[in-house]
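OP here, attaching both records as promised.
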Amino acid sequence: MTWALKRQLFYVSVLVIFLGVLGFLIVFPFMKEIPSCTDNKQNGDEKGIDCGGSCIKACIFEVDKVSVLWARTFKVVSGRYNAVAYLENHNKDAAIYKIKYKFRFSDENNIYIGKREGETFIPASGNFAIFEAGIGVGNSIPVYTSFEFTETPVWNNVSEDKLDQLKVFVSDIKLENQNSSPRLSATIKNDSLFNIPEVSIVALLYNEKGNVVSSSRTYLDMLSGEESRDISFTWPEPIQGNIISKEIIPMYNIFLVKLK
């Protein structure tokens, strides 16, 4: 190989290396992994690992815990009870798609007599109720009831526009035949363009002291956008006490709600 050829090869090699380095410097920024909300890293505008910022998932330190205001059991017939936990979500625009819970029941001596476990969702903002029906505890009578969530919640942010548009109202609430075969009737209206599937509706009856004395539940497979439905709740036995207030709570998973 001649000296001139060697020099040409040297210049070519230098040029190739230079172009390679230049190309790498240009391409390298685009080779970086694009931040996402599922890469198990804190990056982009995230406030924590895969949460906060533009992620749907809210960071646990950004949200307030759900408050358990009370939990009680209500006799339906001899040996059968309904259990209700009344809670408050303090977070205006955060909800939970799915979470496990547990009711525990004790007798008048605070001796454990049974439990009921389940799974539910948590709606955004405000008070809501978790209802369990047909609880049997043998010959015991549940006097004390406790409620707790049994797993770490996964909070998801909910669109403020969706929350503002999604309106469900209850009207024309009427209790009849309280002392014989009680029946509570009402009208529920979906005043939005969203279809709401799997609507669980809980009724609570209050006496003059502001205490809940009985409860019931009904269910709708679907409450379509702009639809009104008549609903009713029944009890197999008379309801004791002076009922002065009724509360009806529509419960639905906001993450299942879709536009018409």
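Record two, same layout:
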Amino acid sequence: MIQSRDVLASELCHVVVAKLAYLAGTGQGEMLKTVGVSDKQIIQLNKLSLNEINQLVAKNQIDVRGFVNSVLDELNDDVPEQYKTYLEYGANNKMMFRYFNVQAAQCSSWRSSLTIEPPFRARSIAHKKHSAVCKALQAEGPYQQISAEALLKIAKTYQVSLCALWKELEEWNKYDQ
């Protein structure tokens, strides 16, 4: 997985550097200046050999995930901003329905267009974090009244999924009954 990401990052970086060198070499320096490339850098880009481009690419890898997400961000516009953060932090269908009255089918559709990081896909709280997370939940007051915003804050602070927090609250509810 990481190796394929490195290959993609290298290829994207190579395409970008080659395009910059092409623009510099074809007299399109003014276009490069509009994105902050200096006259000195334009001259250097114009003189780059293929070997020097390869060396430059090898030294400078781009954050491919950030780059791709920023380029494709427009495709995720169908998820309303008020729900996007909760889904990205792993809110499950029950939580989305309870707090926002959003149906499971709609959540599923929205999730398919989002990138949810691995820590926020988990359905349970890691043993090492469990005690601290439970204390944070208890600090919010009666568990039946914890707000969605408070759960999101805890998820961000402890890097646990909202789904895992919700499951924990469900366990507390079972214990009380």
